[in-house]
Amino acid sequence: MEETMGVTSAAQIPKQRGEALQDTAVRYAEERHWDVFPGAWLESVEGTWRCSCGEAACPAPGAHPVRDDWPTQATGSATVARRMWAKQSNASILLPTGRTFDAIDVPETAGFLALARMERMELTLGPVTCTPDRRMQFFVLPGASAKVPDLVRKLGWPPAALDLVTLGEGAYVAAPPTRFGASGAVQWANRPTPANRWLPDAEEVISPLSYACGRDSRRK
Q1: Can you give the residue ranges of the DNA primase/polymerase bifunctional N-terminal domain (predicted)?
Q2: Distance separating alpha carbons of residues 81 and 30, to the nearest angstrom
Q3: How far apart are CA 97 and CA 117, in angstroms?
Q4: What's the gap between Cα 206 and its chain centre?
C-alpha cells in the first residue's frame, strides 16, 4: 500500500495547472475507464482565490458542478474529455459515482485508521482519495449505496450513529489534483494502479470502515 503519512502536507499539494488537469482527466477516462466531467474552477480576485460560480461563501470553491445536467455531460471518452478541458483548462475534475464505482465517504481520522487495519488484514483496496476538508473516499463496486445500511446494521451499528456516507447514483467525487479554494488539493491516499483495477465490494471493506468510524465518533 502507498505510504499514507503526510498526504495533507502543503509541500505535497500539486499545483493546479491547466495542462496537468486536462492530461489527468484524459488519463482517468483512457486508463481507468472512468466517466469524467469538468466542474468549477478557481479565479484570482484581488489576490484571493474565488470560485468561478461567484458565490463568496461557496462551500466547495472550485470543486463542484457548474451545470444542472452534469450527469449527461460526463463522458468516458478520452477524446471528448480532452475537448471539454480545452474549453476551460483549469476546470476541476469531477467523477460521477454510481457508474463504474461508488464511494464510501468517511472522516479523515477514521479513514487512516481503517487503512491501517485493512493493510494488516491484507485486503485488496481500490483507490482512496483524501480531500482538503478532511474527508476520505474509498472506491468500491457500484451498488454499495443500496447495501451499506444493512451491512452496517449487521455489524451492530445504527447507520445514523456513524459518520459514513455512501455516494452512488446522482453523486460525484472530486479527483486529484482538483483544488478546494485555498485549502489545498484532493490527493490519493491509495493511488489507482493496475493492481487495484478490480474494485472491492462494499462488503469487503465495510467492517474496518465501520469500526474506525465508531472509534472516531467516541472520541468526539
Answers
A1: 25-206
A2: 9
A3: 25
A4: 17
